[in-house]
């Protein structure tokens, strides 16, 4: 028997996931962001109403395509999507209305899109090498688990250890695709991966709404506010994590990274009214995400522990490999505690470790290297090439080792 879709929440006042932006713990952060921005980023009553509404909103265009999937024989909907992505809507005699509406949006190139900024953002992403993976995994993804309601879609997939590795591989492929120079051109992998991830999210959203596990008081699953916050994880949070290691970025480079992820967010169905247009917008949005974040819970801890254990599972066989895996696990946990603090580390179930002091200790060396890089253009170009080669070589090995799926196909069952 088909499960009944639970009635979606329409009254923002009934949301139980919204943190109080005026809580005492926000005072220091408010002062810091006010100093960084030169203005007060604290959400106004009108902005709080907009935030709550965004927590109740899905992605109508992608959701309609998924509803179309359910009306067709199994697998047929995905085939139609792939045809539209790979060959274009013009190859259909009579394309479904849902696909036409979706591709009308994604094939419309925004007037604000700057391809030169996309290229610069890709160079920045390459230049930082494997440090970028550290930050994405142990700050961006790990920090996202602190918001219990936003993390529920992942928690409900079950088999968290296996799913942690799958998410790392899927996120890695997605990131590589969209940060490859030219990757966001219409016929390239970055563009296609962004759209496929968007449809995967819509499929997960539909599964959750049909299940009896989703509490409407958490808002809409994979809603607009959480989706915008995910864009921040790849842009200003990514840059902040790298700067905490001693990396230096010019204003032009930081704006380019925000611009690239603004376009990725557009392709992934994030409301343009929510997408930051510049670094200052992104930092203001980040403050508001932090100010309204809800409480962590047991699922936050389970997800954090599973993501941390991925280092142990991926270490390979043999005594030395396992010892190195354990060292990596400890160092990564230390980095998370360094950037997010011990309170967050405890909520995520991470071990308390002195390795958190390793990361700030290397800042003087990194700063010295960065000053050399900025002074010698050939060094900068070499680092871009080395970083691109490192991720091109390392990622396929990880996929093969884990026998991972990189097709962005949602898990077809929910746990618990």
User: Helical element count?
Assistant: 20
**Biggest sheet descriptor:** none
- The separation of the N and C termini measures 18 Å
What characteristic shape results from the CA principal axes?
Answer: globular
Unreliable stretches: none
What structural class should be given to the helix and strand makeup? mainly alpha
Mean pLDDT: 90
Which bin fits the share of residues in helices? 55-70%
**Cα-based radius of gyration, to the nearest Å:** 21 Å
How much of the residues is beta strand, in percent?
Answer: under 5%
Question: What is the ordering of alpha helices and beta strands?
Answer: HHHHHHHHHHHHHHHHHHHH
Number-wise, the strands total: 0
């Amino acid at each position: 028997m088909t499960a009944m879709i639970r009635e979606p929440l329409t009254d923002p006042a009934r949301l139980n996931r919204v943190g109080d932006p005026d809580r005492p713990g926000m005072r220091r952060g408010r002062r810091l962001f006010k100093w960084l921005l030169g203005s007060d980023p604290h959400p106004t009553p009108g902005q709080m109403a907009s935030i709550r509404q965004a927590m109740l909103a899905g992605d109508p265009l992608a959701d309609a395509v998924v509803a179309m999937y359910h009306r067709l024989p199994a697998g047929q909907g995905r085939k139609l999507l792939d045809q539209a992505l790979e060959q274009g809507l013009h190859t259909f005699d009579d394309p479904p209305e849902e696909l036409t509406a979706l591709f009308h949006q994604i094939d419309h190139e925004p007037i604000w899109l700057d391809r030169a900024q996309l290229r610069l953002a890709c160079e920045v992403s390459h230049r930082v090498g494997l440090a970028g993976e550290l930050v994405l995994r142990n700050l961006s993804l790990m920090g996202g688990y602190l918001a219990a309601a936003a993390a529920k879609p992942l928690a409900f997939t079950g088999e968290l250890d296996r799913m942690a590795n799958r998410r790392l591989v899927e996120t890695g492929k997605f990131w590589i695709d969209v940060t490859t120079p030219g990757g966001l051109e219409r016929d390239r992998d970055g563009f296609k991966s962004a759209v496929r991830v968007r449809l995967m999210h819509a499929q997960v959203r539909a599964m959750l709404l049909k299940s009896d596990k989703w509490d409407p008081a958490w808002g809409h699953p994979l809603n607009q506010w959480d989706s915008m916050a995910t864009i921040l994880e790849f842009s200003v949070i990514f840059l902040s994590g790298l700067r905490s290691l001693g990396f230096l970025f010019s204003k032009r480079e930081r704006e380019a990274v925000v611009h690239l992820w603004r376009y990725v967010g557009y392709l992934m169905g994030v409301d343009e009214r929510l997408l930051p247009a510049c670094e200052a917008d992104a930092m203001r949005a980040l403050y508001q995400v932090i100010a309204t974040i809800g409480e962590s819970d047991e699922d936050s801890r389970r997800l954090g522990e599973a993501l941390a254990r991925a280092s142990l599972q991926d270490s390979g066989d043999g005594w030395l490999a396992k010892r190195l895996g354990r060292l990596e696990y400890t160092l990564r946990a230390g980095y998370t505690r360094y950037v997010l603090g011990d309170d967050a580390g405890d909520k995520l179930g991470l071990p308390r470790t002195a390795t958190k002091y390793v990361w700030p200790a290397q800042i003087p060396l990194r700063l010295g290297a960065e000053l050399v890089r900025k002074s010698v253009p050939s060094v900068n170009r070499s680092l871009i090439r080395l970083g691109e080669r490192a991720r091109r070589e390392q990622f396929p090995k990880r996929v093969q080792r884990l026998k991972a799926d990189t097709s962005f196909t949602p898990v077809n069952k929910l746990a618990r």
